[in-house]
Structures are given as structure tokens and as C-alpha cells.
Here is the input.
Amino acid sequence: MEYNFKEIEQKWQSYWKKHNTYKTDIKENKEKYYVLDMFPYPSGAGLHVGHPLGYIASDIYSRYKRLKGFNVLHPMGYDAYGLPAEQYAIQTGQHPAITTDKNIERYREQLDKIGFSFDWDREIRTSDPGYYKWTQWTFIKMFESYYCYDEKQARPMTELIECFEQQGSKGLNVACTEELLFTAEEWNTKTEKERREILMNYRMAYLADTMVNWCPQLGTVLANDEVINGLSERGGFPVEQRKMRQWCLRVSAYAQRLLDGLDRIDWTESLKETQRNWIGRSEGAEMKFKVKNSDLELEIFTTRADTVFGVTFMVLAPESDYVCQLTTPEQAEEVAKYLEATKKRTERERQTDKKVTGVFTGSYAANPLSGEEIPVWISDYVLAGYGTGAIMAVPAHDSRDYAFAKHFNLPIIPLIEGCDISNESFDAKEGVMMNSGFLNGLSVPEAIKKAKEYVEEKGIGRIKVNYRLRDAIFSRQRYWGEPFPVYYKDGIPYMLPTESLPLELPEVTKFLPTETGEPPLGNATVWAWDETNKKVVETSKIDNKTIFPLELNTMPGFAGSSAYYLRYMDPHNDKALVDKKVNEYWKNVDLYIGGTEHATGHLIYSRFWNKFLFDLGVICEDEPFKKLINQGMIQGRSNFVYRITNTNKFVSLNLKDQYDTTPLHVDVNIVSNDVLDLDKFKAWRPEFANAEFILEDGKYICGWAVEKMSKSMFNVVNPDDIVENYGADTLRLYEMFLGPLEQSKPWDTNGIDGVNRFLKRLWGLFYDREGNFIVSDDKATAEELKTLHKTIKKVGFDIENFSFNTSVSAFMICVNELVALKCSKREILEPLVVTLASFAPHICEELYHALGYNTSVCNAEFPKYDEKHLVEATKKYPISFNGKVRFTMELPADMSKEEVEKATLADEQTSKYLDGKTIKKIIVVPGKIVNVVF
RNA sequence: GCGGCUGUGGCGUAAUUGGUAGCCGCGCUAGACUUAGGAUCUAGUGCCGAGAGGCGUGGGGGUUCGAGUCCCUUCAGCCGCACCA
Here is the structure.
């Protein structure tokens, strides 16, 4: 009987569904294990063969853990909000919900075919009101919280208000947008509106006028991680800087905890390093420079407090608030001209074009240590977003300041003995100080320390830690996202009561911004909040007395993906994001598998979001993902045909150099082992119908290259086709067999026959050609047991180490050996089937039942290996001479060192290789090797 | 520029962690069965060499009885960050 994968796979997929085999519940007597995949955005293109790679790996691990007796949570859902569906809606008028549902349905179909052990009862979609209710709920909690640096956690705003009432803002060590100073009396006399404006300065979720990455083509702002080299991540459109009133999340408050947490989680070093870079911690000093003839003080941040004596000028970012305060009337015109010019430059231009530009403000400041008078300039090499937006320039020891000083002819004072600054600055933090008053003679690290202390003592400034990590801009001028549970009274935002959540996304007539430039929600006719009746009503009823306008922005993509792992634990709970007891059982994700592209987006935001929920006391773990593995990308393997220029004639690969040719991509699905199917090629496109060919050995050989898998390269392979032709089990095995999970590698369907043959051969151990079940109850031999047990041992070890490719080859070796031994014994095959079941669940379920079981192999127990079957009586010792292996000798495994040495010397081949030379020494490593040195 | 990762047959890869480099699979070669082969089975297949043998893990150097594995250096590719004061 043939191995009929189609029948088998359908049969068991419906069996699993019918028997709820993958349904998971809390089992207090069992240890939990949580395996999570990064949930997909359901794109219109469907899955290609690269997408399921991580899912297959996590599925194998989940099934394995289950066989090992763990209670495994392994859910799946969809990141359903997103730009592509909305862009499609703008173009076609089709509601994004419809597009999304359709795409999800297709994804589900594709996923189902592969035989995953997901508990689909726990499916979530970020666009589902029952889900985003909790995204909105968390946002409200953020609005109602501030961050206390002393307690190192988020606290309720009510505590802060109490504090203001009693002592004002004095002595507070809390996260804020800007330092505000007011007394309790001042606070207590303020109006409601004034108070709310002040509170905004401290909220975890706050509304602020900030410089944002505005993308005109997408009509929305983007977060920093959504901008790559000055272009939008989605679509690659230019991005410009603009000041806009936006919702922001105070992620920066958590910078230190986000950094510290990295040391306690099992992620790859490269991923942690990326996050460390992104957080960008630097220790330094904040210092005040007095402005001449003014009460103003310029605040700057520096990591090189030791170089203050070398400050010969200061520079402001063009966006800095100081600019207008310091510009003198004489310079006003020039400054205005410069600001205008910089504004025109996009972020991208500013980054790529490193021409030195700048303008003098007309003002001077005083060096706080030397008292020297120094000019204040403006230049766009200073970033508004980092530090204070102003710097002290030390041209001798900073290359950017150096370039600026050279260009504008400003003085350069060297501060380190013996450094050469005639052509470039000396940036290294080493050497001995000079020209630096009380710092002279100290080494740079000593001087940094001493200068910082001095500055603090004299009240010139303070020691400060700065982070590159910015607060996340949380508003998007988009339709297809979570609505903010916010309405406005007199321009002041108020939160909806949490009992009124979810605030559902309204219908709109069109998905573009309104004529007045408001976001698409401005088109909604039912989008106003009735405060008394606590419900959404017609926009036309807005009277700003009891009925108020609702927020028109929506939340960004990372909102819904930040806490989804928690919702899987308790997906249908409408009383809480996750029940406390449930959360205490599942805790956090033990294994998270996904792509590396989320390193600075999702993986930072979800850690932040999670820490906030932890501070609220809603959840019990402060890091969401204990272990994280990045699966490598599956690249495409493209094929080429070579068209002779100006003809419709194609020449085979190895003859192409004799002609003038153009390579053309050809669909890999009509090429087999680099041999082109000529008929399919002619039928592929009308212009090739009359194509002629120059063949070699009667075949047309195509060229090939490894490229990104994409439609335009014609190298996309669809998993559906693989399942159709070879079955899901073969697909699963082959995806793993390709190579190490974390490595990128090209997909080449040609190799798939190997794993398919393996399954057929396995099948052949159970059934003969006539379809007779040939498994016997005979006693297994020592050799057969050894084959089995070494396989169980290796596969178990490999799975624990996520080395799935080597497990697959171990299975192949095992089956090859059993075939050679003609072993069809139950004693061997039964444990083998259970061991393989995580990789190839369908065929194993079939064989498990054929062996007489009527329960699922998913509920079996992973076999234990017994070392006693693995011990060898003899060892084939490689005998090497000066490190070169010459022959092998079979000796008893337990033979002593001395005896092995003796046996080696006694062998006649030894004298042959010695060739009369004297032996200097003999190295014998028992059980390993013999090395004769002469 | 800084940081991280990766370099092994024609291809994807393996190597018990310092101990016989190339396991497993693809491809290829030869053969068997066959009307046929994109089926199946058998044998071979790192390179050079008729052979003995030599050479081989991007290159160079080192440590070691012994290096794909450790150290130094260099090159190439991929990824991340990039005026971060």
C-alpha cells in the first residue's frame, strides 16, 4: 500500500478538530509552557513558504513539550489593523474590515493545511472590539498614571495631585515633559483647565505638541522605528519633520528598566545589542551656561565634562526654543533665512548631506569654568530631539565641532597633552589633560569624574543620565486602527468611563482625510460623546455642553500587538484584560519565535506596555518574553533564461557566453532542477509562444541566483502547492531540514524529494507493497535497540536546542538503518512514531492508530532512551602520526591507556608509518584517538 | 565610522564542543528493473593524481601531540545603529 498523504492528512486534521485535541485549559497539576509565534498581519498575498518556518518550529517544540508532560499554551491570531488594507480601501472603496476578513480566511486555510497544534478557541484579532477594548482600557490607565523615579514604577495620578495640593511640584522625582515649578498655593488656585494642562506634563499617555515624522503620501505621522533612512517603512515615501499635537506614550520613563531587563532574558546577543543601541544610555552632566547681558541660562548635556575648558562656542538646534530668545535684532534676518532653509530640508537630506551649515545668533554665553565669553551659533548638526537641543562645542575633541569650527574659523583649544589636531579632532577618551585649570595632569577618565563632581558642587549643573529612546508618538491620522477613548471639552481631553468601552470604530463614507485636513474619522457622522447618557451619538449633535467631539486620530500598529500574549491566556474575559489567577498560571511567554524586523518596534513597545501593566498590578511578570528566537529569512532561488539580444531565441546556460544575451527571470514553478519545461515556458506568456531555444544535451539549463522571495522575481513558492504535491508532513520536515532555524537560507523545492522518500521508507517499515501490515511483536536485537535509542537521545537533545535540521537527519539515519536491518518490530517502531510525531504529526497519528491505539499520539509520552543500549564493546581507534590519521584499529572500549599504546606499537602498520624514526611520545585519549609523535 | 552575525564539496548542510572534516539530503556518474521514467533499487561521488600519495573548512600568522572549532590579523557578504554631544 502506498503512503497516501492526502487521505491521511485530511483524516487526522478532521479527527483533531472533532476531538478538540489542541484545546488547552489550566491544569493545576501540570507545569505550564507557553509557546508563542509573532502573529501575522494578514496580507493580501497570502503565505509563502517562508512564513510558516517559525510556526513549524514552534509547533514542533509545543508538541514535544506536550509529549514531555507539560501543559502547553500555543495560540494564534491576527494583527488585523494595518496600512495595506486601508490603502486598498482608499483605492477601491472596499471597507478594510472586509479585506481583512477575507485575507484572514485565506491565511487560516493555508495554516490549517500544515497541521498546526494551535488552540483556535483562543484566536484573537486586534480589530475585534472585544479585544481592543483592553487596548483602550490600558490607554486610559496610562492617562491616569505618572512615573515615579524614586519608586521606579508607574503610580496613579491621584497620588501626584495629592502631592501638588500639599507641597506643589517641589522635590518631585518624576517623569515629565518639562520641569515645572509651582507651590501648593499656586496649584490650589488654578482652574480645572489649568490643572489638567499641568497634569498633561506628567501623564504616561499625554497630548503634546511635538516634532513628528510626517509622511505626506501616507497622510499620517510615523514612529521613529517606522522611518528608515528618512523614508517610511511602508511604501518608502519621504518623511518630513513637523510640529503637531499628538498623543504620546512616556516610554522614556522606562528606559532604564528596559535596559536592565535585557540582562534577565534569553534573547540573542545581537537583538539585545540592537535594543541597547536604541535605548542609547549615556552618562554625563547637564550644565548651565549663562548668557551675556541676559538672565537666560543655556542648558546643555555632555558626556565630556572634562573638556569644558576647551569650549569655544555653543550650538543650538534650529528647532530649539532658545533660538528666538537668543537671536539679536542685528542677526534676526540671517537667522530667519537659515531656519527657513533648514526647514525645507527633509530628514533624509539632513542625514545624507553632511555639508557644514550654520548661523550666528548674535548672543554670547560665558564658560562656567573659565568665564571666557563664547559665541552661540545655530546649526542643524545639533539634534533637537537629543539632550537639551543645545551643545557646548569642543572643536579639539569632537569631530563635528571640529568641522564646524574650521568652516567658520572659530578657535580650537587642544586639551590633551601631545594630541595632534592640525587635521582632525582627537575624539578618543584617553591621554592627560592640559589647558584645563584644576583638571591639568589628570587622565581623561579621572578628569571626567572630577569635573562632574565639581560642576555638581558648584551648582553649575548636575550629573545626569541621558537616553536616546524617545517617547512613542501614539496618534495616527488613519481610519483602520483602534479609536482613542477620548473626547474633548474646551480643547481639553477627557477619557471615556471604562464601563463604556469598547468605543467602537465608526463607519465612514470615505477613508481619506476630510476637506479641512482632519483625519478620516472626521468623516464619521456618528462620532460624538454624550456625556450624560454615556454613549456615542451623531456628530451633528455636538453642543459642547453635554455632547462633545470624540478624538479623530486612531492608535498605531504597535498598540494592538503590545499585550496580545496576555489576552491569549484569557481571550473571552470581558471583565478584565486577563484574570489574575489565569495570569498567575500562564505567567509569561516561555518561547517566542519571530522575525528580527521587530527588534526596535514591537519588542520594545510590548516590553514597555508589559512593564506598565506590571506596575498596575494587573500581571505578575515584568518581562513578557523569556526566551526569544529569531527565525532566519527564507530567501528565494530565482531562475533565469538568456535571451539573445533582439531575438526571441533563448540559449541554455553553458552556451550563453557565445552570444550577446539578456538574462530574464523565469517562474521557478516551470523549472525543475534548473531544467526549463519548454512547453510550459511557451504557454507562460504570449510573447514566448514562438520562442526558439538553443539547447545543450537536449535540455534548456537555467541560471540561478539567491534573491529575496518576491512576486517580481518569479521565485515565490506557495506552501499550498507543496502540501498538494507532497503533503504537510513533508513540508514540515523539509522546512526544518533546510538548515538551522536562525539562519537565512534559500528555498529550493528540488531537495524536497529526499524527505518525501524518507516518509515513504518509514511507511514501508509498516506496510508491504501489497498493503499488508507487517509489524511484528518479535524481540528487538541489540543493534535495532541501539539505532532506536540513539535516535531518541539525539532528537530529544536537538529539540531542546532548537536544532531541528539535525533531528530530521537523525530520523533519516534511523530509518535507513532499520530498512537495512529489515526491522518491522513494534518494540522499535512504536517509540519511533512517538518521537517523530512532533515533526510529522499526520503520518505518525496514522501509524500510531495502526499500531492499535485509539487515542491521539499527541497525548502519548515522549520515549525515554536507555544508555545501556548505546554502550559499545569496542572502539575503532584512529591511529595518527604527527596528527595525520593513517589507519584505524578496533580495540576494546574499556582498554587502558597503556594497553592501547602497547597495541598501537605492536601493530605492523605502525612501523611502516614510523619508517625507522624514533618516537618522541605517544598521546592516547581513551575512547577518542591515538597520536604518535616522532 | 561603530556594533553584531556569517564564510566548510556543484547546492542546502553536519561535525559528540580541541580528537578520523564532509554525516543527512539534493544534484551528478554508472548499473538493475522497465514500453517509459520527473518511479524504485544498487554502487560511486571534496579536489589533484593512473597509483602511492598529496592538498583541503575565505586568506595569512600563532597556540597545541592534534585546530573547522581557541588566539591575533586580514578579506568578503549580510544585518542593525549612525551627526546621540
Remarks:
- Chain A is about 35% helix and 20% strand.
- The first helix of chain A runs from residue 5 to 18.
- Residues 874-933 of chain A form a domain with the Ubiquitin-like (UB roll) fold (CATH 3.10.20.590).
- The first strand of chain A starts at residue 32 and ends at 37.
